[in-house]
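In this section we walk through a basic example: taking a raw amino acid sequence and producing a predicted 3D structure, encoded as discrete structure tokens. The instruction is simple. Fold the sequence below.
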Amino acid sequence: MRLIVNHDEDRITFISENNEIYGSTEYTSHLWGIIEELNWYVSDTDLKNGKRTYIYTGSTPFTKRYKKLYEIVMCAWYGKEIVDQMRDRKFIIEHLDNDPHNCSIENLTFAHEDFNKAKAFSFDKVRPALLAKVAMNIYKNFSAQEYEITLGFNDSYTLTTDEDGESKTIPLNALFLKYSDDFETLIMEANFIANSFKKELDLNIDALNCLEYRCVPANFLITPIKKPLPCFIKYNGLTYLILSENTRLIAIGPSWKSGLLNSNLK
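The resulting token sequence is shown next.
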């Protein structure tokens, strides 16, 4: 299937002829200058058979080692020489959210093939099963070369911390955990966190190896008894998403895009 590409000031989008979005990446003038000159496809056969699909080009010179969109994106951001070196060292390009069509640079990183396989058989399997409790995602900050695990809570959850010798309990809406550029440690921590939620254990923030964390407290509103609630409510000039069995968070973006100027930082 041939795909059409267009862009706005933020995203480059890959769309089918019937206007179905198949993938995207960040817009930069440099990357757009490469992408707009190429033909783009996704395999009809793989789509029909329910196989994992990738957006790819059949245009030269991208027909040998690098023809998939995520490969070309990484070459544009890191440079082909770096990508070559990492590939030669048996590092692959990892999609952090396990979606091969999400080619945002914040969703891509280098991972040794051993840890890529470990993630596939652990975190990638557990994470979707946790969605009723928590939306858990990982991002890579290209500018800082750091990772961030984000947690958006669909169920009530509290974080207990020790401040100046006093215990403080915070009801959570979201939690942001920053990590250094170490994929092995990142995946070990992500699995530990996911397993804690799976087994309904308290998360000991002090036991984590994160560089720092940010938390966004939950907001509670008193509503009329037995009155059905809409998905959104405006209160004191702010719009709130009302979480329920039918309305859930599926992802929380990274803190460097979330404007968390008033959040707690540890």
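Looking at the output, two observations stand out. Confidence is low (pLDDT under 50) at residues 260-266. Residues 183-198 form the longest helix (16 residues). In the next section we compare this with other chains.
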